[in-house]
Amino acid sequence: MSANLEKKKQIxxxxxxxxxxxxxxxxxxxxxxNVANDTxxxxxxxxxxxxxxxxxxxxxxxAFNELGLEGYEERLQHTLAVAFSYDDEVAVAKVAKxxxxxxxxxxxxxxxxxxxxxxxxxxxxxxxLPSREVLVAKLLGMLNAPATxxxxxxxxxxxxxxxxxxxxAKKN
Length: 172
What we know:
The chain is an alpha+beta fold. Helices cover 60% and strands 16% of the residues.
């Protein structure tokens, strides 16, 4: 077996491992982007705990087919980079969408969230979602609101009594 074929098999296994571990994946057409912008984009992905890498489309397609993700032959065209997010489903989409503002030459092609296909508009919509921490905080606030309001209502009578007694004391 040739060394080149063995190296390609290792890359396919690497892609499969990353795709299985990733909560979300975004494919970006990076054609026309200069080296400085590419470096800046890589740094931004790293800062958000995402991994950005360029693979040969044939190797990505082979890895996807081995994982049972089929139907991507026509989508894996041109110069595509792959961004993986292992912690937060939204992070990779946010960084990719922000990169569009800085680099008009690049475009988001499609993505996967929990192994489910989303198109370019879906990736952009995903980027608009707040982070997981913000959503959890909002949920806890909503769950806590009825109890807080109940405490306020129950303490209102006691507060009103104290205010009435204070007003009587000030009169005398």
